[in-house]
Sequence to fold (410 residues):
Amino acid sequence: MMSIDYLALDEKLDPEEYVICEYTVKSDLDIETAGKRIAEEESTGTWTHPTTLSDDIFKNYGAKVTEAEGNRVRIGYPVIDFSGEIGGIPQILSIIAGNLFGLDTLEGVRLVKLELPKTIVDGYPGPQLGLKGLRKVLDRPEKPLVGTIVKPKIGLPPKEFADYVYESGKGGLTNSKDDETLVDQDFCPLEDRVNEVSERLDLLEEEGHIMIHAHNISTNGHEILEAADLALDNGARQLMVDVLTVGFSGLQALAEDESIDVPIHVHRAMHAAITKNPDHGISMPVIGTLVRLAGGDALHTGTYGVGKMHAEITEEIESKEVLTEKMHGLKKIMPVSSGGLHPGLVPDLIEMSGTDVQIQAGGGVSGHPDGVKAGAKALVQAVDAAFEGIDITEYAEDHEELKKALEKWM
Ligand code: RUB
Fold:
């Protein structure tokens, strides 16, 4: 009988034969043993040697720990463990990010990196439009996209909501969106809101400006396609889904549906419960990889420490990179920077994000002393200045809206 040992240090795994994951571990166990605990729990699946575990099963289906150094392990899971028509991203997650988080001997464990073989990637829709498609829809080939989140996030009735969108379009914004808590509430039902917003977007287009609005259709799994249909039947130009509260499968169902030909904006409410603890959970780059696999066209990745949300800058850079680097032929998707932004923060933001980014501000548009249109203009001016490499305060000297925004927020 062969010895069952999950440790295969320095073995070079064929990246087409394994799903390879990197974890950081906090534990009293030495790192090799910690790696073995994860590998056994997530492949053959128990803490002792079952009499039913044959050499063949171990050899063909067992995970392998190929690196274990410092607080880091790399583990390869054989592709056959992910085979079959049924399972999808829920199954991937239950293997690479399942029971291991509860193991008592590991005080903390964090999945930091995910590398998928082409055979697995090919089984998923991936982005239908992606970064380039989104730019094409907006006829904006190079500059950052500039957007707003309609605020207050609850309470505005459909007409006032749509007026906000129209005003922000008149100020030059390319994008706007529902916030995550707004879906179909009595004060602003989805159907009426989409109707009103679509009317205003058509008007803007007649007036020579292209803009899209992401409508939040995050809902129960069995109702999400129906919600998408409702939005599209009423003229929606973009859909939004909250991938962690809905689940990756909801996003994938939208991306796979042939009748949905508009970009899908992916919000990530609740992600910090999973991503924020540096010693435990799942990193945002892993979530980004799965969003790209499932078919999002744009995803929130953070503001590199300039905005209101907690940021681990290195990880945010990696989050942006997993959306745009090579991934077995999948389209790139648009990184979205949002949360506590205003025009004065744009130069620092663009320095970190580059120009392939959708910059969004809610309060940083609607909080402008002269209202939404002026706020939108100020944000656009800040982006134009940064894009042209002109100092923002210099640019503000002859751009009134930007000047007032800087006076208020800087
Ligand atoms: C933006 C806002 C969004 C955050 C979410 O409003 O609150 O929901 O972007 O955070 P405001 P993240 O511009 O007024 O702050 O993008 O990090 O997921």
